[in-house]
Give the backbone structure.
Amino acid sequence: MNAPKPEYIDFPGSRTVVVRFSELPMSRMPDEMDRAYRALGEAMQQGAFRPAGPAFSRYESVPGETATFETGFPVEEPLAEAMMVDDIRVVPSELPACTLAISQHVGPYDGLGES
């Protein structure tokens, strides 16, 4: 499979609703990402927020054995306050204005690294 070429865009910034992870072991990432998106989906069903675009993950550094990142959705209206969905904390955040390299992966999670 050929890795997709990134596209560079001027990004104006966006409010977001996310689940944050700090020093998550990479071996736990698939299960924890599934739990995060189930919690985000439940928060949406409860009417806590409405996505204004596709899901994303923003990493604070290049993942190694662990990763510190947040994953969620851009929103037009911010989440009023942090909320718990089961044992997952869903919080308001934002993506800063910047130049972004974007790429899209289509397929199973285990092919993400190659993309």
